Amino acid sequence: MNWRRKAAAFLAAALCLLCSNLVLAQPQPLAHYNAVELARESPTSVQFAFALNLPQVLHQVMAPQLQYPAFLQRYADLPDPAFDKEIAKASAALSAQAYFTLPSGAKANIKQWQLPDKLALRDSFKASLILLNMPPGPASHLDPVRVLAQVQAKTPISRVQLQLPPALHPIVVSLPNDKFWLTEQIPMAIIEMP
User: Which pLDDT score is estimated for 40?
Assistant: First the structure.
């Protein structure tokens, strides 16, 4: 009987060790990549639904010369009027660098960026700052933030060239019939809007 208990204990210990090694071998999730889904609203209008690591994107758009922690601290503490002005400038900068080039050669900029309110933005800056001081781990990043934008053209949108700001790269672009990446090396793509 004693050997059965020893065998059972040995087997239980081996199974525990195997299970713990399997758990440790699982890949740890990384920070979310930026993503966008495009959906046609009308023949001349396309809706963009972004999922962004917004503090990092805004750092690149608003103050790339600052170190990331300094950016987070500075902008989290800005007075409301100055913060509103900076966010308006960031939206304008995103619009200037995000557009469709139509077959005629005309550009249709992506506009009406619907960023979260200033309280939510400040909170995301503060949370990012806290996460920077934590040891790296599976939960050491913020969930992506939903941001909507829209492009409106004077002519129907069908086959166009899409260009998005470098601050969003890398970004996975999802169309109803396609999915691809835009990166620093591949900053634009020809797309067909169904």
Answer: 96
How far apart are the C-alpha atoms of 52 and 36, rounded to whole Å?
8
Q: What is the pLDDT of residues 128-140, one digit of tens each?
A: 999 988 877 655 5
CA distance 53 to 154: 32
- Rg for the chain, CA atoms, rounded: 23
- Measured distance CA(164)–CA(99) in Å, rounded: 7
Q: Rounded to 5 degrees, what are φ and ψ at 44?
A: -115, 10
Q: Are 114 and 150 in contact (CB under 8 A)?
A: no
Half-sphere exposure of 145 (CA within 13 A, CB side): 22
Query: Helical H runs in 26-146?
Result: 54-62, 68-76, 80-97, 118-132
Distances (CA, A) of 192 to 44, 53, 159, 175, 178: 13, 27, 4, 9, 9
Torsion sign, CA atoms 70, 73, 76, 78: negative
